[in-house]
Amino acid sequence: MSNDETPQGPRASRRPDKPRKRRRGLKITLGVLLVLLLATGGTLYWLYSQLDGNIKGVDINKALGEDRPEKLPTSGQNLLVLGSDSRAGAENKELGGGGAVSGARSDTAMVVHIPEGRSKAVAVSIPRDTLVTRPECVKDDGSTVAGKERVMFNSVYAQVGPACVVKTVEKMSGVRVDHYLEINFAGFKDLVDAIGGVTVDVPQDIDDKSSGLHLTAGPQKLNGTESLAYVRTRHGIGDGSDLGRIGLQQQFLMALLSEVKSQDLLGSPTNSYKIAESATKSLTTDSSLASLTSLAEFARSMNGVDPASMETIMLPVAYDKIDPNRVIAAEPQAGQLWKAIREDATIPEDAKKSPATGG
Q: Which run of H or of E encompasses 346?
């Protein structure tokens, strides 16, 4: 064997090995990447499905049929936002003195009107003690509940359900409700904790033994339990009636919406799974919003609305002459208010004044 043959033989036998090793290495790398992509995609799909499945939907259109107010002639939108005070289950019973009350109530109710252009909004609170005429409604099981006069507004939810609350609001206002959004109190607590608390400017010292809320006036960052007590308190502010706390509820809702918007929770619900899970678990919406995709699209369409500049109004009410512990819609103010919303028009200043203030 020559000197030339000795090195050439081994080199000739090794040369084909390098491409094969590279090919094997490439296959392994691609295989690992494929597994990782499939695993990540599967995880993301699972997370999306989990969050999407948390949202409960109510088919308002099916429940109410065609006997409803006309839609706005503009691109404006009306939302009915409810805070449901369910005392079912150990978690809800422990929140703010909940053990003394059974069943569920629509503890907080607001009609949120977003005019055409969606750059501003107004929230109209309906006091829970308002006496209303409940129209004939159909329950989830298909049975019919007869209409009744002089029932407390917050009892409609407990007796007949959310679709009947929408129908009651539409009948009393003539305003078409485009969307329904409900948050339960236990989920509300978890959401506030998940986003790190909400800062509100407490208007006066509050010492409410019933709810366990003790706050000094001024800016305060509230956790979930404190936030619940804040929106529930009625003995710690005003005359102890429901009217006195409506201002607190409106103020807190604006602060919460500002925090939700700043963290883009609805626009990008998977940014923080913990926060998104708390939010979606607490939500019930109309069927057209009952998905992450629909909620995100709706949130993006509302992006021009600044919660900090949202106008908040209490439905003008007067103390009932038969039962002074209850209130009724005050006229002509209430009629003027609803007319402005129906027509997507500016609300007259006189329509914002309530004879009963709860002060």
A: none
Nearest CA among 266, 263, 256, 252 for reference residue 302 = 266
The pTM (predicted TM-score) of the whole model is 0.78
Owner of token pair 């129906």? 342
Q: So what's the pLDDT on residue 306?
A: 78
The answer to whether the CB of 58 falls within 8 A of the CB of 284 is yes
Q: Which residues of the chain carry a pLDDT beneath 50?
A: 2, 5-14, 34-43, 87-93, 95-102
18 φ, ψ (degrees, to nearest 5):
-65, -50
Burial class (CB in 10 A: 0-12, 13-18, 19+), 224: buried
- Contacts of residues 68-73 at CB distance under 8 Å and 24 or more positions apart, as own/partner, are 68/170, 68/176, 69/170, 69/174, 69/175, 69/176, 69/342, 70/176, 71/176, 71/178, 72/116, 72/176, 72/178, 72/342, 72/344, 73/344
Q: Closest by alpha carbon to 275, among 184, 193, 186, 200?
A: 193
**Do the Cβ atoms of 330 and 291 come closer than 8 Å?**
no
Distance CA(211)–CA(94), nearest Å, equals 11
Whole-angstrom distance, CA of residue 243 vs CA of residue 249:
10
**DSSP, residue by residue, 30-44:** HHHHHHHHHHHHHHH
Taking 3-state DSSP, the helix, strand and coil percentages for the chain, each rounded to the nearest 5, stand at 45, 20, 35
Residue with tokens 């999306």: 48
Q: C-alpha angle with apex 199: 197 to 202, nearest 5 degrees?
A: 130
